[in-house]
Amino acid sequence: MQYIETQLTFSPAIPENREILAALLAEIGYDSFMDTPTGLSAYIPADAFSSETTEAAIEPVRPLFEQLTVESKPMPDVDWNAEWEKSFTPITIDGRCRIRAPFHDYDAAYQLDIVIEPKMAFGTGHHATTTLMIRQLFDIDLTGKKVLDMGCGTGVLAIAALKLGAGSAVAIDIDHWSVENTLENAARNNVALTAVEGGVEAISGTFDIILANINRNILLDQMPTYSRSLAAGGLLCLSGFYAADLDIIREKASQLALRFEKVLERDEWVSARFIKTK
After folding, report:
1. Could you tell me which of 262, 198, 276 has the C-alpha nearest to residue 234?
2. CB neighbours (10 Å) of residue 57?
3. Residue 218 lies in a domain
């Protein structure tokens, strides 16, 4: 798949500004982001790219920046799976979990072994938020629980939950390739789940645990639906936002009968856990 890379250089290049721009670009089809020393790199399928649409998306927030430049260019048309395979190394978490590719050997030293092969270069699961969400799962009794993985990407969190004892899992993502990839990765890990293409409107039924590793603005927008979809006493685990955003996430949760329980932090990113009180 051909991709366009859009490089945004801005000042001040602070986490809050990266979050704002990533949220705006995600709404128009950008599906992957990488922090840079001077700003942010964003990636979008070439057939979904429009320079005019990109400029229009960020125009309302230009006054927030002292300086903001945007440059877009095609990425090399290469075999991203082959490129990914060259550089991918297994992820290990607290000596208990190992996330590996199919070409890595199994290591019995880890309690939780997960095999993931993304369909493309993005979404390999190396981000700090993946680690934080896996750590949250280790701290939860998942036995027999109904789990929702919102914005599932490769399906790694739903797969981890099932391998840790969850009774069932539904994985939802707006990207068709993510849904396909989640099903493929579930088969690689010998677990069964339901994968659905769509956004928050695709949530159906009630869950014991909801996992959402997305970004601050989307989480704030979707939290009311998460709360309605949680059983009493159910747990909501969120990530994809910075420590500086925790207060606004907690404030929103308090309005939705979601009591704050725990936060984990790594590299300025956090994962927060809440319990549905009624």
Report:
1. 276
2. 19
3. yes
